[in-house]
Amino acid sequence: MSPVIQARALTKRFGDSEVVRGIDFSIPRGSCFGFLGPNGAGKTTTIRMLLGLSPISGGELRLFDLPMPGAGRAIRARIGVVPQMDNLDPDFSVAENLRIFASYFGLGGAEVERRIGELLDFVELRDRAARKVGSLSGGMLRRLTIARALINDPELVVLDEPTTGLDPQVRHLIWGRLRELQRRGKTLLLTTHYMEEAERLCDRLVIMDQGRILEQGSPAELIARHIEPEVVEIRGDGLDALGRQLADTGCRIEPLGDLLYCYAESARPLLDRLEADGCPHPYLHRRANMEDVFLKLTGRELHE
Amino acid sequence: MNWSLPRFSPLALAVFRRNLLVWRKLLGPAVVMNFGEPLLYLFGLGYGLGLFIGEMQAMPYLTFLASGIIASSTMNAAAFEATYSVFTRMVPQRTHEAMLASPLEVDDIMAGEMLWCAFKGTLSTAAIFIVALLVGGVQGDWAPLVVPLGLLVGLAFSGVAMCMAAVSPSYDFFSYYFTLGITPMFVLSGVFYPVDSLPSVLQWLMQLLPLVHAVELIRPLVAGLPVEGAWLHLAVLLLYALGGYYLAVVLARRRLLV
Lengths: 304, 258
Known about the structure:
Strand order of the largest sheet of chain A: 6-7-8-3-9-10
Number of strands of chain B: 2
Structural class of chain A: alpha/beta
Distance between the termini of chain B: 10 Å
Number of helices of chain A: 11
Largest interface: A-B, 32 and 27 residues
Largest sheet of chain B: 2 strands, antiparallel
Largest sheet of chain A: 6 strands, mixed
Oligomer: heterodimer
Radius of gyration of chain B: 18 Å
CATH class of the largest domain in chain A: Alpha Beta
Radius of gyration of chain A: 22 Å
CATH superfamily of the largest domain in chain A: P-loop containing nucleotide triphosphate hydrolases
Shape of chain B: globular
C-alpha cells in the first residue's frame, strides 16, 4: 500500500534562511508518526507545508498519492487538523462549532448531527454541547478541537503539540483517544517535545533539528542505536570531580545542570562503586529512553 | 507574492453563512450601529437643512439627501465590516486559519467574506431606502432597484477595504483608511450637495473614486429621473469590486500562507 505522505527533498526558505533543509520521509498508512525536535527545528513549518498552508520552496510532496499544493482542496478534505493554538469559533457553542466546521467541508444534515453526537461522546463533552466555547477549560477546548478535526471522518489526523500545557488527567484521556483512533485505522501525525508522549504513542519517529532530519526509526530502534541500555542519574552539586572518579567504571558520563548521566551496557560496576563509596548524592538507576536519544542527537545546550 | 488569478468554489457560501449565523446572534447592537448614524444624518440634515434649501437639482432636498445617504451608508457598512470585522476573523480570532484546515482556500474565504460585507452594505441600503420611502423622500417607480444595486455598491467598497484588513498590523491602522479615504469620499462625492459645485480638480479626482458613481446611479432612481451614463457608473463599481477582490486575495494569501 502506498504511503499516506511522501516527502522528497522538501525545503522551505524564508528569505535567506532555510528552515526546512531538504528532508525526506514517508508515512505508512495506519501508523502513528511523530516529529520530535527542539523549538525552531522546522516541525511546524513542515506540517504547514503538508497542509498547503505554506508554499513549498523546493522538493516534492505527495499525500494520498496526490500532489501538494496542486490538489490541496482534495487532500485537505481527507485530513483532520489539531493546531498548536486553539482556533475555535468563540461566537458559537460547542455543538455549533462542529456543525459550522462541517459546513466548510460541504457536509450537513442528519449525518453530521449523528457524527456531532458521536464525537462529543468520544471526547466526553456531550453534557457541554450547548455551552459557549468561552466557558470551557483549556483541556475541554483541546478535546473539542480534536472532535472538530474528526468531523470529516479523516484518514489522516495531524496534531501539532496536542497535549502541550494540559494537566496529566487530560493528557492521558487524549492519549487514550489517539490510540483508539489508530485502532480504527486512522493515520496519525504528531509533533511533540514530550518524549514520554512520543514513546507511548508513536510507532515511528523522526528527530529534527535546525531544519534537518537527524534520525528516524521506532522508539526502541532509536534507543538501541544511540544509547547504552542502562542509565544512572546522580544529582547534586560539584559533580565534576565525581564524574572524573567514575570514568574507570566503563560508563559514558554526561553532565547536564546538576545531574550526571552515566550510560552503560551494564550499570553494575558503577552501582557497586557508588554503594561501596557511600555516595552522598541521591541517584537513580533506569532504562535508557527517548529523552536520552533526543539530548544526545540535538545537543544539551539551550535552543532559543 | 502569489498573483495567480483567484478561483473560488461554491464552498465560499459556507463562509458567508457562518457570518450570517453570528450576525443573527448579535442582531440588536448590529442594527443600532448600522442604521443609527445614517438615520441621524437623514433626519437631522434633511429636515433641518431642507427647510432652508428647499430644492436641489430639481428635487426636494430630502430626496437629494436621502439618495446620497443610501449610497454612503452602504459604503460605510460594507467598509466597516470589511476592515474591522474581517481583520478580527483574520488575525486575533484566527477564524480564517481554522477554515484553511478544510477544503476552503484563501480565495474562497475572501469571496465569502466579500459577499458578506456587501450583504451588510445592502441591509443598510434597504433600511435607509425604507425610511426614505416612509418619510416621502422617494418619487421614482424604479426606486426599489436601489436595493439590488446596493449589493454591487457594497462589493465595490468591500474588496478595497479587505485589502486594508489583509495588510493591517492592528485596528488603529483603519483610522487612516477611514480618515483619508472613506470620510473624504463621504463629504466630497455629492451626498450632501452636487459634485459640480467643487473645484474642477476635485471633481476629476472624485470621478476616479466609486462613491460618486454609486450616488449618480441611486439618485435618479430615487427621484424618478432618467439615469445618465449608467453603463459607465456600473463599470466603475464592477471594476472596483473585481480589482479589490483580486488584490485582497493576493494580500490575504501573503498574510495567511507563510
